[in-house]
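Lab meeting, item 3. Inverse folding demo.
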């Protein structure tokens, strides 16, 4: 029996969320730099 499957799952979710936040920030940066041109 796995001891902490929920912890593993939470860690994976956090990784996905971090990536989503990073891509959102990158998209905002690209949009801002495109508007300043």
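The presenter then showed the designed sequence:
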């Amino acid at each position: 029996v796995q001891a902490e499957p929920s912890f593993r799952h939470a860690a994976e979710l956090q990784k996905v969320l971090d990536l989503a936040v990073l891509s959102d920030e990158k998209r905002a940066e690209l949009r801002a730099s495109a508007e300043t041109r």
